[in-house]
Design goal:
With 285 residues, the chain is of the alpha/beta class. It is 27% helix and 26% strand.
Length: 285
């Protein structure tokens, strides 16, 4: 169940203690729990806009799309590639940039069927995303916060997963245990290629991210997961479009062309990369 334990004050990094429906640090900074159980640990001074992250409309579109289980193969791929020995009862997992919580909730549901009990925490900068997540799954600790400054102490988690998000590797390394693992899930070259060919006059060349590796991590495994799915209504197509950056990047003509579709078969092309945290040699620091 949700615990909201072992967190840090985002203002002064002091430990937060639970007092009824609030988290309070020793300097008196107080963070009240929302009615749905999440806590907002994103101070006003750390916001780059009045309402950062995905909008209420984008979150609603993503929720409507994902609950149809078109992306369930990604959940299966995450569990099947999880490094051996790192998925067992008691493991502490952070979903950094969790959105409305689909992947973290599905992982928990499947592991419960396997009788594997893990601690799950989901974090996102969008209050609308965390509000939706906290309504849907009461067994996860949900936070409004930023990957740029994770409100938790060092070595808080055994695994950090970041799906289609904005990774901050120094922070991920800091909050991971010495034996901790990191998962990055990103789009591949042909992800939604059929839709992109309609939206854009030309397709940019695909450039792999972090091809040179990560300073704080060593690569354990890399896998591509490709599958197809069909959307059979304009409503479903718009739900998918609204949850992607293409809704803002595509031209008016491209979006109008998509608006004429009633069905489309799409390719999902996903890259999964698991990393292990590097242990620094303090004698060489």
């Amino acid at each position: 169940m949700s615990t909201l334990e072992n967190l840090s004050c985002p203002i002064d990094l002091a430990p937060l203690q639970r007092r009824e429906r609030s988290l309070i640090c020793q300097h008196g900074h107080t963070y009240d729990l929302a009615k749905t159980g999440y806590v907002n640990l994103l101070p006003v001074q750390n916001k780059r806009s009045k309402d950062p992250g995905d909008s209420k409309e984008m979150v609603a579109a993503r929720h409507a799309f994902l609950k149809q289980q078109h992306y369930f193969p990604i959940v299966q791929a995450i569990l099947s590639t999880w490094p051996q020995g790192h998925l067992r009862s008691g493991v502490r997992v952070l979903d950094a940039g969790c959105g409305e919580g689909y992947y973290l909730s599905e992982i928990g549901r499947i592991l419960a069927d396997w009788h594997v009990d893990i601690e799950r925490m989901g974090l996102d900068i969008s209050k609308w995303a965390i509000t939706a997540a906290s309504k849907a799954d009461k067994n996860v600790s949900w936070l409004v916060a930023s990957n740029a400054s994770l409100p938790m102490p060092e070595q808080r988690f055994d695994a950090v997963i970041c799906l289609f998000g904005f990774p901050v590797f120094t922070e991920f390394s800091r909050v991971l245990s010495d034996d901790g693992v990191l998962l990055l899930v990103e789009s591949g070259a042909n992800h939604l290629i059929e839709l992109r060919k309609i939206l854009y006059p030309s397709i940019h060349e695909y450039k792999p991210t972090f091809a040179a590796g990560l300073v704080d991590f060593e690569l354990l495994s890399e896998q591509s997961e490709t599958f197809s799915f069909e959307l059979d209504s304009q409503a479903q197509i718009q739900q998918l479009l609204s949850m992607t950056p293409h809704i803002h990047k595509a031209s008016y003509e491209g979006r109008e062309a998509v608006a004429l579709l009633n069905t489309i078969t799409l390719t999902a092309d996903i890259k999964l990369r698991w990393y292990r945290k590097k242990i620094r040699d303090v004698n060489n620091v």
